[in-house]
Amino acid sequence: MAETVATYSICACDLAAGQWGVATQSKFLAVGSVVPWAAPHIGAIATQSYANPRYGPEGLELLREGYSAEEVVERLTAADGDRALRQLGIVDGEGRAATFTGEECHAWAGGRTGSGYAAQGNILVSGDTVDALAETFEATGGRPLAERLIDCLDAAEAAGGDSRGRQSAALLVVERDGGYASLSDTLVDLRVDDHPEPLVELRRIYRLHDLLFGSTPRQDWIPVDDALRAELAERLARAGQPNLAAWAGVENLEERVEGDDAIDPVVLERLREAT
């Protein structure tokens, strides 16, 4: 039985934003393919330590049926003959949290819950890692959930992290119609499958994801006056593109372009850098 060894994770939600997510790091190849599960307004689940991947889909289904996070933990583990080896964290659609650590999980192993989050880890240097997950989440309210979760991982690593090292990391955040083109519930789904510094790489690709698929409030867009329109035309001509929409499509910035009376400052900056 393969173990997602030296794994720590946090399941969390931002009820005001309608977002649920999981962030995790492990000395395990492609941890994102096993640990994180989430569905908007349903909940988020992390399954690890000789992980039972069925806890993910089966747990989400129980949450859909109206069971609380604690009840889902009880049902999943009660039906599992190897529950002593499992670790599990759940946040439900109302922000209630539960965590479970089987008595045969390798030390240090344990978890902590609070309003809107469940933090857990196994084969850690100490319980300070889980405390750092929890305390960082509690201290970062008001910021985007994805950023808070990455900060939690960084704090956990700084507090001691995995006793056997690091290999992969993942970030999953869901929001109803919050994903690409507003046609997906997956707001962020990033995985670092094998890297000497997975958290550094996770933050790098998250910044790239935010650049390409994030949004700037419309009131912060820059009005296109005659001078700026002339500049845009000149720069687009240099780039060999007939208009801003065509250039943005090449640069994967099409989600940040709408109309021609104003321009997203992120798009303007990238165009200026490119031309």
In short, what is this structure?
This protein has 275 residues and is α+β, with helices and mostly antiparallel strands. The protein is 33% helix and 24% strand. The chain is elongated, with a radius of gyration of 21 Å.
Descriptive report:
The protein folds into 2 domains: 207 residues, Glutamine Phosphoribosylpyrophosphate, subunit 1, domain 1, CATH 3.60.20.10; 57 residues, no CATH class. Helices cover 33% and strands 24% of the residues. The chain is built from 8 helices and 12 strands. Strands 7-8-1-2-9-10 form a 6-stranded antiparallel sheet, with helices on one face. A 4-stranded antiparallel sheet has the order 3-4-5-6, covered by helices on one side. The chain has a two-stranded antiparallel ribbon with strand order 11-12. Helix 1 crosses helix 2. It starts with 6 loop residues before the first strand and ends with a helix. The mean pLDDT is 95.
